[in-house]
Amino acid sequence: MSTENLSSQAGVVVIGAGLAGWHVIDAIRAKDKDIPITLVTTDSGDRYHKPMLTMAISQNKSAADLVRATGAEAAEAANVKLLAHTQVSDIDAVSQQCHLVSGLRSDPVYTNYATISYDKLVLAMGAHPIFPSSLPEDLVWHVNHIERFGQLQEQLATGSQHVAIIGAGMVGTEIAEDLLKAGHEVTLLDLNEAPLSQMLPPKATARIAQAIKSQGINFLGSSQVSSVTRINDNNSNERKLQVSYETLAVEGETQESPKTLVVDHVIASTGLVVDDKLPTAAGVEFNRRTGIVVDSQTLRTNASNIYAIGDCMSINGVACRYVAPLRAQAATIADDILGHEHDGYEHKSPMIRLKNKAISVMITGVPQAKGDWQVKTESDNELVMDLLNETGEVSATVTIKAPVTA
Q1: Partner residues linked to 267 by β-bridges
Q2: Residue 69 and residue 17: Cα distance in Å, rounded?
Q3: The FAD/NAD(P)-binding domain covers which part of the protein (predicted)?
Q4: Domain ranges of the chain
Q5: Whole-angstrom Cα distance, residue 213 to residue 191?
Q6: Which of 9, 167, 219, 327 could disulfide-pair with 270, CB 3.0 to 4.6 Å?
Q7: Are 115 and 98 in contact (CB under 8 A)?
Q8: Does 2-127+274-338 match 130-268 in CATH topology?
Q9: What is the spatial distance between Cα 349 and Cα 366, in angstroms, rounded to a whole number?
């Protein structure tokens, strides 16, 4: 165990080596080749495109195939000091220092403690999966990170298996199709009656539910998982999991008795949450539901010289968890850090597309299930609906089309 002071070279410190963190580094280096940059990450810092994780299994792409450059290679190319396998344990916003703990997770005895000073700090630490108490982390997978994705892919490589996915949002629905295309049996469970029900109204989600069922995905709506337990299969040495769930009572109907489902793997797709430890330590304004609060034009937090970008931050009370705006966000932060004049970041909600061959779903604006949704176009092959705000203006639009067949 050792203690090290890394404060001799301050400059810019970026916490998090996901797409957001690397985009900030790219944006700074495009305008300044020499300003010191230190990248702190709990993993190896490898560069990869996270949205590919929901399509890679059926494409037979390994975790290594998705890596565009290792962390070491990318850091050398960008003239960045990389502190891999290092966790920021505390931020002192007054002295402008980060306290670090480093060492491989596999070797907890070997641990270094260090501090590093910063002139500017960028929080790009992302968000992590929510694991309800009914989904024990030691039994349930998530595919929010390439390391876990690689481990799951190894387990699935032995042949066709039965996989239960808990949560039918965008990610869960996309993973379901990917696994199905790879030859696995898939059961998709959700608290709501249909996929994407937290984003879209029932008229729209009913079409999505019908489409995924037509693919052969077993969708269990209005289902609440109460437990996931390991069971012994007397006929084989393979690990089996039992998923216990209840069908939620519909108004006027009696709730059914608890049911069970025996599967090979369970994947959690139950949403994301931002860890409040570092924002709280730094005195950064934080919302437990949406993440770090930033100024909409500069992406500065309320703490001096601290910025936030990507999954961990929110603008005007809305979490920013999409890839498309990252480049513009990074460019604004780079200009602000370097003292360049800039017009400020203008947030535009990206177009959201569900990656599914059975149905085309495109969403613009800020969708939410509840609200004044109006049908604009409706036919067997197409549904277009607008969400109107209190003043009658369109705040979101969903377009659902059946795929074109030859």
Answers
A1: 141, 165
A2: 12
A3: 12-322
A4: 2-127+274-338, 130-268, 352-401
A5: 17
A6: 167
A7: yes
A8: yes
A9: 7
Instruction: Write the CATH number of the domain with boundaries 352-401.
Output: 3.30.390.120
Output the pTM of the full model.
Answer: 0.90
β-strand partners of 242: 229, 262
Q: What is the DSSP letter of 198?
A: T
- Structure confidence by residue, pLDDT tens digits, 225-281: 999 999 975 665 667 999 999 998 765 555 667 899 999 999 999 999 999 999 999
Backbone region of residue 302 per phi and psi (left: phi > 0; alpha: psi in -120 to 50; beta: other values): alpha
pLDDT digits (tens, 9 = 90+) for 381-402: 999 999 999 999 999 999 999 9
> At 147, which helix (H) or strand (E)?
helix 146-156
Average pLDDT, whole number, for the chain? 91
Cβ neighbors of 109 (< 8 A, separation 6 or more) are none
Q: Give the residue from 64, 269, 45, 87 showing the smallest Cα distance to 150.
A: 64
Integer Cα distance of 229 and 243 in angstroms: 7
Tokens matching residue 371? 């609200």
Match 């609440």 to its residue by tokens: 224
3-state secondary structure of 30: coil
* Residue 209: φ, ψ to 5°: -60, -45
Which overall architecture, per CATH, does domain 2-127+274-338 show?
A: 3-Layer(bba) Sandwich (3.50)
- What are phi and psi for residue 221, nearest 5 degrees? -85, 165
Phi, psi of 88 (to 5 degrees): -85, 115
The pair of three-digit structure tokens given for residue 73, joined into one six-digit string: 């290679």
Instruction: Tell me how far apart the alpha carbons of residues 273 and 289 are, in angstroms, rounded to a whole number.
Output: 7
User: In terms of Cα–Cα distance, which of 84, 118, 87, 90 is closest to 101?
Assistant: 87
pLDDT for 1: 34
Query: Exposed e or buried b for every residue in 371-391, given b needs 16+ CB within 10 A?
Result: eebeeeeeeeeebbbbbeeee
| Alpha carbon separation from 357 to 18, 177, 261 (Å, rounded) | 28, 8, 27
